UniProtKB/TrEMBL annotation:
Organism: Gouania willdenowi (Blunt-snouted clingfish)
Binding residues for Na(+): 78, 81, 85, 343, 464, 468
Main location: membrane
Family designation: Belongs to the sodium:neurotransmitter symporter (SNF) (TC 2.A.22) family.
Thylakoid listed as a keyword: no
The protein's name: Transporter
GO biological process: alanine transport; glycine transport; L-leucine transport; proline transport; sodium ion transmembrane transport
Membrane-spanning parts: 72-90, 102-123, 144-172, 230-249, 261-284, 304-325, 337-358, 452-478, 490-509, 521-542, 562-588, 608-633
GO CC terms: membrane; synaptic vesicle
PROSITE patterns cross-referenced by the UniProt entry: NA_NEUROTRAN_SYMP_1, NA_NEUROTRAN_SYMP_2, NA_NEUROTRAN_SYMP_3
């Protein structure tokens, strides 16, 4: 025992020995008890007088911080607004009833989107750690949540950056006129010049995508070797990502000023340009024409919930990581609402652009028909008398197309006319590799100054993807930097090199099929499980009332009771239904991919071979395996639960409290008072009222519990 403590001094005196809490703490070795403030031996629902259950952040803990609020908001917007807003949301809107789809989407955004986004922002900002550290603090047995989140980030980052590489390839190919995908290539066969048969059977843009860009094989079994063009594009993409995140938020924050704002400039330009084209109004009218009967289909609600879930980036760890660099008193409630609304508005804006631009395809084909009429290729008698080419509607074109196809059945293929149904365009895009590289690319070939618009479009895709990749990489590097002492520059470079090497799987000639596999299996089910466990660990294990109290201490106001009921009941129930629906869909839907058949010039659905199916399910298992492993090893105390790694700020706060208690104890000793007679140095405990405002939460057994660690964390029954 240290010789200069008051306890030792009192052993040599005749005075009764009265040990203070500070003295008892001073005798302990620096074991930093438990990493979770939530496991301080308190009874469920109680707090230390005047103290929050979560570690107090400190400006001196050396953690980086955002330079300003705008950088942070742009980072969250850049992460949440990604490629899915441009090519996934418009397809779902068309498929699920047009304007009617917006109703379930908005309802589910309020029920699960904003509440869960707010929850992730709050825990990241309060605990100031990445995904692994946060959930180790909340409940060590569920520390696998952070590891699973990191695994999913890794899987998604591998193939997501390949898509950025594709955009880079198209970006550089756009600096020529005419665009290389505007017309089918001509093959010279002796003295004859014929159109490439594969292109003639499909279309110029489809041929360029599958043959010129990907040079894809016909099956996933045939790897075909590396595609050197896409390999170089992937290398450029990883170099860009590495440079953006190498200095952490100090470098990525600056990049976000451009990568988050530039896509909106391009979308507005495309919207204005699209509205100036004939047929654009028909496309927008098609979007806002609701098919109300679709709202009664469960599939519509399931797809809306899934889109809300992934649109905000829930469960990836990027949201928590970005928020962990905030100040303690930042209004994360406002941030959650703002970013969610921006994301929703962006999806609608992108859908307006897509519907306006794709509908103009009918006008381009109508001009072809008009040219055939003027040259005598087609008879004017084939055109119904009520059709006016100056004001051609979608219905008029469809009727005219059907008549010509029926009359000119033998020579119809030589006319080069397309049905140009918006549904077909969107379905064609989503079944392949996305709307960007097929339907929208073809539409841009009909624009005046088409190379300019193509450059703008693919530069927008690069920036959209880069913003999401910065958030994904931050979700990987932040928890690693919090856990291990390593320079962020070294970690970033190592991660990017390893990711590039593993990403070579996706730049083989069959790489597109692996992108589809990872997109279908690596993130969907694992992320949903991760988020429901996040919700349960905060709302039911830690306690919703305690969490609401922490939010009040942090924000300076108590959040609406709406969040209490969402976190505790509604969101977990919806997520559980979503998990069940996802499992059922995986069980009943055939596992396969759309392969490009060169001889037919079209896609054909192929089932995965056994090895590929095993690989697909291995992705799900690998992403979810940390959850049971961490739970088991910590339940049976097989490994340390991180109890010796409290944050610097928390240790400083503890030592400050000990110092204050020491001074108070010294005064009481000098005055000869017993501790029970001296006034408490701590401020009076503030009662907290639950969401109903009628039940007071009181501290009834503070300091009396003998349980330690996560064995004493509040149970769900404690709040019933």
């Amino acid at each position: 025992m240290p010789k200069n403590t008051k306890v030792t001094q009192r052993e040599h005196s005749n005075e009764p020995v009265t040990e203070s809490v500070a003295d008892l703490l001073s005798l302990e070795h620096p074991m930093d008890y438990k990493s979770s403030q939530m496991s301080m031996g308190l009874s469920p629902g109680s707090t230390a007088p005047g103290k929050s259950l979560l570690p107090e952040p400190d400006a001196e803990d050396g953690r980086p911080a955002w330079n300003n609020k705008l950088e942070y908001i742009l980072a969250q917007v850049g992460f949440s607004v990604g490629l899915g807003n441009v090519w996934r949301f418009p397809y779902l809107c068309q498929k699920n009833g047009g304007g009617a789809y917006l109703v379930p989407y908005f309802i589910l955004l309020l029920l699960i989107g904003i509440p869960l986004f707010f929850l992730e922002l709050a825990v990241g900002q309060r605990i100031r750690r990445g995904s692994i550290g946060v959930w180790n603090y909340v409940y060590p047995r569920l520390g696998g949540i952070g590891v699973s989140s990191l695994m999913v980030c890794g899987f998604v980052g591998l193939y997501y950056n390949v898509i950025i590489g594709w955009s880079i390839f198209y970006f550089f190919k756009s600096f020529q006129y005419p665009l290389p995908w505007a017309e089918c290539p001509i093959r010279i066969n002796g003295t004859q010049a014929i159109v490439e048969p594969e292109c003639e059977k499909s279309s110029a843009t489809t041929y360029f995508w599958y043959r010129q860009a990907l040079n894809t094989t016909s099956t996933i079994d045939d790897t075909g070797g590396l595609n050197w063009k896409m390999t170089l594009s992937l290398l450029v993409a990883w170099i860009m990502v590495c440079l953006a995140v190498i200095k952490g938020i100090q470098s990525s924050g600056k990049v976000m000023y451009f990568s988050s704002l530039f896509p909106y400039v391009v979308l507005f330009c495309f919207l204005v340009r699209g509205l100036m084209l004939k047929g654009a109004i028909d496309g927008i009218a098609h979007m806002f024409t609701p098919k109300l009967e679709k709202m009664l289909e469960p599939q519509v609600w399931r797809e809306a919930a899934t889109q809300v879930f992934f649109a905000l980036g829930l469960g990836f760890g990027g949201v928590i990581a970005f928020s962990s660099y905030n100040k303690r008193d930042n209004n994360c409630h406002f941030d959650a609402a703002l970013v969610s609304v921006i994301n929703f508005v962006t999806s609608i804006l992108a859908t307006l652009v897509v519907f306006a631009v794709l509908e103009t395809e009918e006008i381009s084909n109508a001009e072809k028909i008009l040219g055939f009429l003027n040259t005598g290729v087609l008879s004017k008698e084939l055109i119904p008398p009520h059709i006016n080419f100056s004001h051609l509607s979608a219905e008029d074109y469809t009727e005219m197309y059907g008549v010509i196809k029926t009359v000119k059945e033998d020579s119809f293929g030589q006319l080069g006319l397309d049905a140009c149904l918006l549904e077909d365009e969107l379905n064609k895009a989503v079944q392949g590799t996305g709307l960007a590289f097929i339907a929208f690319t073809e539409a841009m070939t009909h624009f005046p100054a088409s190379p300019f618009w193509s450059v703008m479009f693919f530069f927008m895709l690069i920036n959209l993807g880069l913003g999401s990749m910065i958030g994904t990489m931050t979700g990987i590097t932040t928890p690693i930097l919090d856990t291990f002492k390593i320079r962020k520059e070294i970690l970033c470079v190592v991660c990017c090199i390893l990711a590039f090497l593993m990403g070579l799987l996706f730049v083989q000639r069959s790489g597109n099929y692996f992108v589809t596999m990872f997109d279908d299996y690596s993130a969907g089910l694992p992320l949903t499980v991760v988020v429901i466990l996040e919700n349960v660990s905060v709302a039911w294990i830690y306690g919703t009332k305690r969490f609401m109290q922490d939010l009040e201490d942090m924000l300076g106001f108590r959040p609406y009771s709406f969040y209490y009921y969402m976190w505790r009941y509604v969101s977990p129930a919806i997520l559980l239904v979503l998990i069940i629906a996802t499992v059922i869909e995986m069980a009943v839907s055939p596992a396969g991919y759309n392969a490009w058949v060169e001889s037919e010039g079209a896609e054909s659905f192929h089932s995965y071979p056994p090895w590929a199916l095993a690989m697909a399910y291995a992705l799900i298992v690998a992403a979810m395996l940390p959850l049971p492993i961490v739970f088991i090893v910590r339940h049976f105390n097989l490994v340390s639960d991180g109890s010796n790694k409290l944050s610097v700020s928390y240790r400083k706060g503890m030592m400050k409290d000990i110092s204050n208690l020491e001074e108070q104890d010294e005064q009481r000793f000098i005055l000869g008072k017993n501790p029970s007679e001296a006034p408490s140095p701590m401020p009076a405990h503030r009662a907290y009222l639950g969401p109903g405002g009628t039940t007071e939460m009181t501290n009834t057994n503070y300091g009396t519990s003998t349980k330690t660690g996560y064995q004493n964390i509040g149970s769900p029954e404690s709040e019933l």
